[in-house]
Amino acid sequence: MKTLSKSTLLGNMITMRNVSVDYPGHCVALSDVSLTISRGEFVFIVGPSGAGKSTVLKLLTHAETVTTGTVMVNGLEVEKLKPSEVPNLRRHIGVVFQDFGLLPDRTVYENVAFAMRVLGSGRRAVKERIPVVLEMVGMAHRPDAFPNQLSGGEQQRVAIARALANQPDLLLADEPTGNLDPETSLGIVELLHQINEQGATVIVATHDVAIVDQRERRVLAFSEGRLVRDEACGRYDTVAEVSVGK
Predict the structure, then answer these.
(1) Residue-wise over 178-202: b if at least 16 C-beta within 10 A, else e?
(2) CA–CA separation, 81 vs 76, rounded Å?
(3) Which residues contact 119 (CB under 8 A, 6 or more apart)?
(4) Which range among 70-79, 116-125, 144-153 shows the weakest confidence by mean pLDDT?
(5) How far apart are CA 206 and CA 44, in angstroms?
(6) Each residue's pLDDT tens digit, 44-70
(7) What is the pairing mode between strands 218-223 and 42-46?
(8) How far apart are CA 118 and CA 214, in angstroms?
(9) In Å, how far from its chain's centre is CA 93?
(10) Alpha carbons 130 and 4: distance in angstroms, whole number
C-alpha cells in the first residue's frame, strides 16, 4: 500500500449532494442524502437491512446511478462519466464483499493476479505486487491454496488482498464480517484499520455492533433510505437511529 502525502490527503474523497435513488414500484433506496467524507477517513455505515447502506457503496463505483443529485468521488462527478471512463474510476477503488467473491477454481495467488490483470497490470507488476499484499494481510504462507482449503477469515483476508492489489485510494467493505465469528471479525477490522493508517480512505457498511463500538470511528447511520445520524467517534447506537429517523 502506498503512503499518501499530506497534500494528497487534504480535501474530500467523497461528496454526495441531495442524492435520491428510486427503484420501479415506488421503492425508495435513498432519499435526499448529503454527506462528505475526507481523504484518509475511516467511516462505518450502519442501519438495518434495506436502509440504503449498500446503495451508497454502489453509487461510489457507478454500479448504481442516482435518480437525482450529485456524487463526486476522487474529484470525478460519477454521473457524468462516459462508459469508457468508469474503469478508471474503479481502478482507484477496492471493494470487499461479505461472501468473499473468490474464484473457486483459482489459487490465492491466481485470485489476486486476476484482479490486477483485469485492470491492465502487466506480468512484472503482478509478480512484484502479489507477495506484498499477501504479506500485508497475513496470507503470504498460502499462495497456492484454493478457497475451499481456507477458513472464512482466511478467505476474507485474500479478498482484502485482492482489493488492495491495485493500490486503491478508497477501500469499500460491504458487510466484511457478516460470515465470520466474533474473534475473526475483530481481526479483519484491525486489518482494515491498518490499511487506513497507511493512507487509504476506508468505508465499512455493517450490521456488526461489536466492531463499530470497539473502534469508535465516524458513524453514518441510515434508516429507510435517509441519513439519520452522522457522528464522529460514534457507536452503533440503534436506539438513537430509530429516534432520529422518526
Answers:
(1) ebbeeebbbbbbebbeebbeebbbb
(2) 8
(3) 87, 90, 91, 166
(4) 116-125
(5) 7
(6) 999 998 899 999 999 999 999 999 999
(7) parallel
(8) 36
(9) 8
(10) 20
pLDDT beyond 80 at 31: yes
Helix (H) or strand (E) holding 211: helix 209-215
* Nine-digit cell string for 123: 506480468
Which is nearest to 205 in space by CA: 173, 171, 230, 181? 173
Instruction: Report, as an integer, the average pLDDT of 8-15.
Output: 70
| Consecutive H or E run containing 45 | strand 42-46
Picking from 151, 54, 57, 158, the residue whose alpha carbon sits closest to that of residue 102 is 158
**9 pLDDT band (50/70/90 cuts)?**
very low
Cell of 243: 429516534
